[in-house]
Write a structure and sequence with these properties.
By secondary structure, the protein is of the alpha/beta class. About 35% of the residues lie in helices and about 20% in strands. The structure holds flavin-adenine dinucleotide. The site of flavin-adenine dinucleotide has 47 residues, from helix 1, strand 3, helix 4, strand 8 and helix 5.
Length: about 600
């Protein structure tokens, strides 16, 4: 590896150039243009996963909607594990942020009378999901990126890969990062660091997540002693394309798409998700019924249908059909053009004429770096926001379209909080930051130069995937989770035996893939151990050996702390309840027992 050169210095370093990172950067630049701000991203910012978001972003805008309703939907969707103070703040700020996006140029779809269009989304009692066709994430990220470009003072480190947090005096004071073009490992000092590194769906083999979603920032915080909250809650999305895992957005169901089993039946009617609604009836109040139920329930229903033998065999595992034919070509082309394009290119069918084969796919991490409502972690100087952070508004199950809005509301909040912290804090001891960087360089050089190992990245990663998929999927049990934990411990041991072939310094993606794998193993262990210790069923975490929700014992966030040998120690933290005491989740008309 290349020798290290002089340290770089900024007031604030943001690691991550997705929606959350860019919104935080704009907030800092607007609040105080004199602050020196850097955005570090392992890919060019427009390639961050936010660009792939399709369906839309939620915020109350319609006259017949209310803040109360958005809060309630989010909290019941979370199976009462969301912190209600965070939800209230989120819901209140959400419309202002989406209007702000409009002013920065985001092309929201509109009604003929000029008002912003909103579409129904899963688990939301009313249409409140703003959208830009079915490429919402692309338009939002573009809007944020072009807005950030106005601020000359912001220094971007595109294609720099952060490998370590620099901690001294009990404070986070920067990061170590590889400049991927040259292979140099650099010390970037800062008074505050904001992590916005996205999710970690890649710890599973079948996911909608881009290849870069390996939980790097989450793992860096974890290694630095910051707890990871609610890691057992992994969201499966009910409609991924078999084989690739490419997402068919919930908007397809929001616009009227239905799910059919092999008998052509809308099987969700059998799963306490209410009665079928007439599609396209504008007078019908939107209820959280059937296909517009929450994602956890829909994925569980798929698994039950599979057990009953009602799913359809495909070369890439069993599927059901998502039928949007009745919506009609004109509306599909206008509102769901990307769905049509994806189905044609990746499933070989035209959804105007044929149903789309779909199956549940890992989509989103509800858990992440523990923060308070201002995005501050317990470590002074370290903030986290976006999918890598757990604030928490998602609890045990996120509602679709809350995430994009969350990036904005809490992204801004992170920028403001970090800027205020930096302006108020004095000088700290930072004498060891360069030697810490040298140690990190030595650690990476040892991996790079290893000549004795007989393991390959792909094989070890494949075993991690298998461990997660087989034991920590939609339904879990103590026995399966115990096996997963054991397999992951073996996977961790094998990391030290992986040998790399690529000796180049220029864009050595084999090296960064190796570092990503190390990060993923940390995250996978946090997920599996937290899941094993939560002996109840709640939201996306379904234990066949503990099928009921247990508020007595588990109306609590799990907090995973990394220990020396890598396995986590799990503690618990009370959930914040403000106005909505725990109750049964109700979809359609009939109350249903949680955990059913
Ligand atoms: C296919 C798909 C569709 C979705 N659709 C919707 C939707 O319609 N509505 C909704 O609300 N949500 C949706 N989501 C979820 C939502 O898009 C994501 O949760 C959100 O975009 C994450 O944004 P982020 O800013 O936290 O991270 P990302 O956009 O993932 O960005 C992470 C950033 O961190 C950087 N980074 C990571 N590791 C490192 C490192 N080691 N060093 C340097 N930089 C690093 C990356 O380069 C990147 O810039 C969807 C998700 C997927 C996968």
């Amino acid at each position: 590896m290349r020798q290290m050169s002089e340290a770089l210095q900024h007031d604030i370093v943001i690691v991550g150039g997705g929606g959350a990172g860019l919104r935080a950067a704009i907030a800092v630049a607007q609040l105080d243009p004199n602050l020196s701000l850097a955005v570090v991203s392992k890919v060019y910012p427009m390639r961050s996963h936010t660009v792939a978001a399709e369906g839309g972003a939620a915020a109350v805008i319609k006259d017949n909607d209310s803040f109360e309703a958005h809060c309630y939907d989010t909290i019941s969707g979370s199976d009462w594990l969301a912190d209600q103070d965070a939800v209230e703040l989120f819901v209140d700020e959400a419309p202002r942020e989406l209007i702000q996006m409009e002013h920065w140029g985001c092309p929201w779809n509109r009604e003929p009378d000029g008002r912003v269009s909103v579409r129904p989304f899963g688990g939301m009692t009313i249409e409140r999901t703003w959208f830009a066709s079915d490429k919402t994430g692309f338009h939002m990220l573009h809007t944020l990126f072009q807005t950030l470009l106005q601020y000359d003072a912001v220094k971007r480190y595109d294609e720099w890969f952060a490998t370590k947090l620099l901690i001294e005096d009990g404070r986070c004071q920067g990061v170590v990062a590889i400049e991927m073009r040259t292979g140099q490992i650099r010390c970037i000092k800062a008074k505050a660091v904001i992590l916005s590194t996205g999710g970690a769906g890649r710890i599973f083999p079948f996911t909608t997540n881009g290849a870069i979603k390996t939980g790097d920032g989450t793992a860096l915080a974890y290694k630095a002693g910051v707890p990871l909250k609610d890691m057992e809650f992994v969201q499966y999305h009910p409609t991924g394309l078999p084989g690739t895992g490419i997402l068919i957005t919930e908007a397809a169901r929001g616009e009227g798409g239905v799910l059919l089993n092999k008998h052509g039946e809308r099987y969700l009617k059998d799963y306490d998700l209410g009665e079928p609604l007439e599609v396209d009836d504008p007078k019908h109040p939107q209820k959280r019924t059937m296909e517009l139920g929450p994602r956890d329930r829909l994925c569980q229903a798929f698994m039950k249908e599979h057990e009953k033998g009602n799913t359809i065999e495909s070369p890439f595992g069993d599927v059901v059909h998502l039928d949007i034919r009745h919506i009609g070509e004109k509306k599909i082309n206008k509102l769901l053009p990307f769905v049509r394009e994806l189905a044609k290119n990746y499933a070989g069918i035209d959804p105007v004429h044929e149903p789309i084969p779909v199956r549940p796919v890992v989509h989103y991490m509800m858990g992440g770096i523990h923060t308070d409502i201002d995005t501050a972690t317990p470590m002074p100087g370290l903030y986290a926001v976006g999918e890598c952070a757990c604030i928490s508004i998602n609890g045990a199950n996120r509602l679709g379209s809350n995430s994009l809005t969350k990036l904005l509301v809490f992204g801004k909040r992170a920028g403001v909080a970090a800027a205020k912290y930096v302006r108020s804090c004095g000088k700290f001891d930072d004498s060891s930051l360069e030697s810490q960087t040298a140690s990190e360089q030595a650690r990476i050089a040892a991996i790079f130069n290893r000549t004795s190992g007989n393991e390959r990245i792909a094989a070890v990663r494949g075993d991690m995937h298998h461990a997660m998929e087989s034991g920590a999927g939609i339904y879990r049990h103590d026995a399966t989770l115990a096996t997963t934990c054991e397999k992951l411990a073996m996977v961790r041991k094998r990391l030290g035996n992986i040998q790399l072939d690529d000796r180049s310094n220029c864009f050595n993606t084999e090296l960064t893939t190796m570092l990503e794998l190390e990060n993923m193993v940390d995250i996978a262990e946090a997920v599996a151990h937290s899941a094993r210790q939560r002996t109840e069923s709640r939201g996306s975490h379904q234990r066949t050996d503990f099928p009921e929700r247990d508020d007595q014992k588990f109306l609590k966030h799990s907090m995973a702390y990394r220990t020396e040998d890598g396995t986590p120690r799990v503690e618990y933290l009370d959930v914040v309840i403000t106005k909505w005491p725990p109750a049964k989740r109700v979809y359609g008309e009939k109350p249903i027992e949680s955990g059913a």
